TrEMBL record:
It comes from Sphingobacterium hotanense. It comes from the Bacteria. Residues 16-316 form the NADP-dependent oxidoreductase domain. It holds the Pfam family Aldo_ket_red. This is Aldo/keto reductase. InterPro entries: AKR_Detox_Biosynth (IPR050523), NAD(P)_OxRdtase_dom_sf (IPR036812), NADP_OxRdtase_dom (IPR023210).
Length: 319
């Protein structure tokens, strides 16, 4: 595959679907993770996203398991420079902890991430959650030190308010500090309003690469949930049903099913292709636990939805 898209304001070029590493150490053990990563890269993809706290929510885990698995895989496979590694700092390690982007914490955590991933540098180091108690300048100066030290190449932002993101970008400009080159928001066919109403303009004005997470809405848009009974077939089904299975959600699933049938492909491929067709989107993040999930990634990159299909999906998902 040669469909690389540039993360603006950087020299990072990625195939336009990023593997979401939250499944490593959770729904995939190390051996299964190696297999899916091997296949992902063999198919031509080159970008992996994780976080220092994945997958702390699994009983018996502490956080860092995903990075550790990626590091063990990298050691086995090699070819580090062919890959774009993205991780995050600042998120919670449990329900009683808070976001933390203090300089000392970032510098401590980057060393742990580098050790776990068995690499000398992180291509894109992202603020996972905004810590409003820490001055923006302090956080950016910590990143400046890491970039100067060669440990981090570029920085990105994830869960910010629009106001704090704008302030962070302005502070970087004003003080000539490293500036976020990417934004990782929650965005998919179902969860449209917040990104489109609050962040899309900011991303465009600041030339931010947008790499959305939950691109398939926790699997809701994958085509496996077509009726009430389908939610009983998976451990996550009940939570997904409560959040998404309303009149609008059913309308979206129906439109996805119709478009995927017309294009003879999967609902997952159509949902990802819809994102890829959005002018402001660089590359969605999506996870896979089976090889056939990866085939929908390939199909999405190759799929060119017509205007009628995009209009049908837009109308079904109108908020």
């Amino acid at each position: 595959m040669e469909n690389k898209r540039q993360i603006a304001n950087s020299d990072l070029f990625i195939e336009p679907i990023i593997f979401g590493g939250n499944v490593f150490g959770w729904t995939l053990n190390e051996g299964q993770s190696f297999e899916i990563l091997d296949r992902f890269v063999d198919l031509g993809f080159n970008a992996i996203d994780t976080a220092n706290n994945y997958s702390h929510w699994v009983p018996g885990n502490k956080g860092g398991e995903s990075e550790t698995i990626i590091g063990n895989w990298l050691k086995k496979r090699g070819k580090r420079d062919d890959l774009i590694l993205m991780t995050k700092v600042g998120g919670r390690f449990g329900y009683d902890s808070k976001p933390n982007t203090k300089a000392s914490y970032i510098k401590e955590q980057v060393e742990l991430s580098l050790q776990r991933m068995q690499t000398d540098y992180i291509d894109l180091y992202q603020t996972h959650y905004d810590d409003v108690e820490t001055p923006i300048e302090e956080t950016l100066r910590a990143y400046e030190d890491l970039i100067k030290g060669g440990k981090v190449r570029y920085i990105g932002a994830s869960n910010f308010t629009a106001e704090r993101l704008t302030e962070s970008l302005a502070t970087a400009d004003h003080l000539n500090l490293p500036k976020y080159v990417s934004l990782q928001p929650e965005y998919n066919l179902y969860d449209r309003e917040k990104y489109e109403q609050e962040f899309e303009v900011i991303a465009a004005q600041n030339d931010l690469a947008v790499i959305p997470y939950y691109s398939l809405a926790s699997g809701f848009l994958s085509g496996k949930y077509l009726s009430d009974d389908d939610f009983n077939k998976s451990a996550r089904g009940e939570g997904i049903q409560k959040r998404y299975w309303n009149e609008r959600g059913q309308r979206i699933v129906k439109a996805l099913s119709e478009v995927s049938s017309a294009y003879r492909t999967s609902s997952s491929a159509v949902a990802l292709a819809w994102l890829l067709a959005r002018p402001s989107i660089t590359a969605p993040i999506a996870s896979a636990t089976k090889e056939d999930h990866l085939q929908s990634f390939v199909a999405a990159v190759q799929l060119r939805l017509g205007e009628d299909a995009i209009q049908k999906l837009n109308e079904a998902s109108t908020y």
